[in-house]
Design a protein that fits this description.
- This protein is of the alpha+beta class.
- The chain contains eleven helices and 16 strands.
- It has helices spanning about 35-45, 65-75, 80-95, 155-160, 175-185, 195-215, 215-235, 245-250, 255-265, 275-280, 320-335, and strands at about 5-15, 20-25, 50-55, 100-110, 115-120, 125-130, 135-140, 150-155, 170, 190-195, 240, 270-275, 285-290, 295-300, 305-310, 315.
- The radius of gyration is 25 Å and the shape is elongated.
- Its main location: cytoplasm.
- Belongs to the YejK family.
- Keywords: Cytoplasm.
Length: about 325
């Protein structure tokens, strides 16, 4: 992930704690291995977290940041200038929502074939280090584990003006609602995709596809693992799920089959879907076979449609498949 440009500004409370003040860097950060490692570490912390997705809002003045970025990419403003403008705007939005400061780290990087601009507010914590005399000493450390305010803009997708593309993402943790609202206002973004809802719809479409295709147990499990592995890989890379790419992975013999199933059934899914980690973790299937009994169900049903009694080693299935229910009724009538 080559870092094309980066810079660090600092936000800190004013002397009267009435507002946030920007301590801006005069120039972009020089190229260094340490900065590249920091940018990569921030990216790794950002990718799996819950996010909102959208596009710059349309209309004059709806997103000043979009205008600043366009001027930068066109060579009309430099990196330090536009990032300071963004930092000043963010400081004003956070005055009533953030009581402590931190380092605002920007990077313009190339990820694969696309270029992106990322920003993250990283706070510092006190740690312990060892000095040259082998003595334990206080050491300040960046706290990437508590990343709560960050965003990424896929500049290549934005400039290509691909219809329906969700090229802006931002952190949307449950405990950071106000910070997410500040980021939305800063970016001037119209949020248009609910990642958990879209992921649930995709998984529902997949379950319907497997059921209608009448795959055997091993094939169903293999295809489920393929879907979850691909979605998890995209999540870790910070990239969306691409439906046609997923379709080709799910069934190499019929690479368009799953994609056509989604289109014909009209699930309302966009061509690209941001994966949601929590929803994916609930989708792994439980399977087992013994003494003529074969059981397989999606893990997200455990605790709702399926209950496990560990003491008695029993499964309680609350909702029987209609086909199985009819077979049992016919058997009862015949006895």
């Amino acid at each position: 992930m080559p870092v094309l440009q980066s810079i660090v500004h600092r936000l800190e409370p004013s002397s009267d704690n009435d507002r946030l003040v920007v301590k801006a860097a005069a120039t972009a950060h020089p190229d260094s291995a340490v900065m590249s490692e920091l940018v990569a570490a921030i990216s790794d912390a950002y990718n799996p977290k819950p996010k909102g997705w959208g596009q710059f809002a349309e209309g004059e003045g709806a997103s000043p940041l979009a205008g600043w970025l366009a001027a930068y990419l066109d060579g009309e403003r430099d990196f330090a200038d536009i990032t300071q403008a963004i930092a000043e705007r963010l400081a004003g939005l956070l005055e009533d929502r953030l009581s402590v400061g931190g380092y605002l780290i920007f990077d313009h990087s190339r990820r694969g074939e696309a270029e992106s601009l990322s920003l993250a507010l990283v706070q510092q914590r006190q740690g312990i280090g060892i000095d040259d005399n082998h003595q334990a000493v206080p050491a300040a450390q960046l706290n990437l584990g508590q990343l709560t305010l960050a965003a990424r803009i896929n500049l290549s997708q934005w400039r290509s003006e691909s219809p329906g593309t969700q090229y802006v993402s931002f952190l949307k943790d449950r405990g950071g609602k106000k910070l997410a609202e500040s980021m939305l206002e800063l970016l001037g973004v119209a949020e248009s995709i609910d990642a958990p809802s879209e992921t649930r719809t995709l998984l529902k479409a997949f379950s319907d596809y497997v059921e209608q295709s009448d795959f055997d147990e091993d094939t169903s499990r293999e295809k489920t693992d393929t879907l979850v592995d691909y979605a998890s890989e995209q999540l870790n890379r910070g990239e969306p799920i691409t439906l046609d790419e997923l379709s080709a992975l799910v069934d190499e013999q019929q690479p368009k089959a799953f994609y056509e199933h989604i289109r014909h059934a009209d699930y309302g899914l966009a061509p690209e879907i941001p994966p949601d980690k929590r929803t994916l973790n609930q989708f792994r299937r439980f399977t087992g076979r013994a003494a003529g009994v074969s059981i397989s169900f999606d893990s997200h049903l455990l605790g709702s449609s399926v209950e496990y009694d560990e003491t008695r080693e029993r499964l309680i299935i609350k909702t029987l498949p209609s086909q199985l229910r009819e077979q049992l009724k016919q058997r009862q009538k015949g006895t």
